[in-house]
Amino acid sequence: MKFAYPDVKFIGEVYDPAQYRRYIHAGFDFLYDKVGMYDCLRDVMCHRRQAADITRQWQAVDDIFHHMLYFLENHDEQRIASDFFAGNAQKGIPGMLVCALLNSNPVMVYAGQEFGEQGMDEEGFSGRDGRTTIFDYWMVDTLRRGYYDRRALKKDQRMLHDTYTKILSLANSEVALREGKLYDLMYVNPQIADRQFAFLRKADSQLVLVVVNFDDLDTEADVVIPRHAFEFLGIDEGQHVAVDLLTDQQTEVMLGCDKPVTLHLPPCGGVVLKITPQKKA
């Protein structure tokens, strides 16, 4: 089929990782990263697994990461905001930060996810199961209100949509997040392994430090950047200007080999620090 329709993007649902490379070789452009990244993120968001386990998931498919499609919701899975998953759409934000900013592979946002769709309607066939219309024709209320009359959305739904818009815009507009190298920081940060996840992205002179907080509480995190990261990515030690791209708040950070950077992390959120070396006088 790919040979007949080369411009069509073919996405496969393959839940056996041992078959991934076979399907890619056969012509599939992308595969749902379901049994790896999705299952891991869901467990982390529900506090059933350490955030540090995310590292193992991307490493398992690092050689084919461009073909792995990240997602937090789709037609088969339960909605984040449903009673069967996290019960709160805001808890999906740290997972979305990982999906959109960890690497340069594609990410999918499912219909109404950005508005906090709960999927708690009782459709005729599938019933109330936290999913949206697997076997039924149905109206998704958040989509109707969100796309046709934003004013009809609740305040928290509008704020959630703004956050999704910001994250996805950054993934496309910032060169380090769009195409930069990834440096996972978790191997030198066991102190945050349970509820936080930290990584660097670097392209040319642009450096971005992303620290994600899966906890429901405000958190102070000390994130160590090892000497190898400075050497591998070509980072300069010293005082740097930093802007949190999620809030546009500017600050200064001191970067040093094997020295911690202390960050304040909002609950179920994170910081995306774009770091620029200060110009020498």
The poorly predicted ranges are none
Summarize the biggest pleated sheet: 6 strands, antiparallel
> Which percent range fits the helix content?
25-40%
Strand content: 15-25%
**Average pLDDT number:** 94
Query: Can you list the strand order of the major beta sheet?
Result: 5-6-7-12-9-10
Structural class: alpha/beta
Number of strands: 12
Listing every helix as H and every strand as E from the N terminus to the C terminus, the arrangement reads: EHEHHEHEHHHEEEEHEEEE
* Helical segment count: 8
Q: Globular, elongated, flat, extended or rod-shaped: what is the shape?
A: globular
N-to-C terminal Cα separation, in Å? 60 Å
Q: Over the alpha carbons, how many angstroms does the gyration radius reach?
A: 20 Å
Protein model, in words:
- The structure is a single chain.
- Helices cover 27% and strands 24% of the residues.
- It is built from eight helices and twelve strands.
- A hairpin with a 2-residue loop joins strand 6 and strand 7.
- Helix 2 packs antiparallel against helix 3 and helix 4 packs parallel to helix 6.
- The longest helix is centred in the middle third of the chain and has 19 residues.
- The radius of gyration is 20 Å and the shape is globular.
- The N and C termini lie far apart (60 Å).
What labels would you give this structure?
281 residues, alpha/beta, six-stranded antiparallel sheet, four-stranded parallel sheet, 8 helices, 27% helix, globular
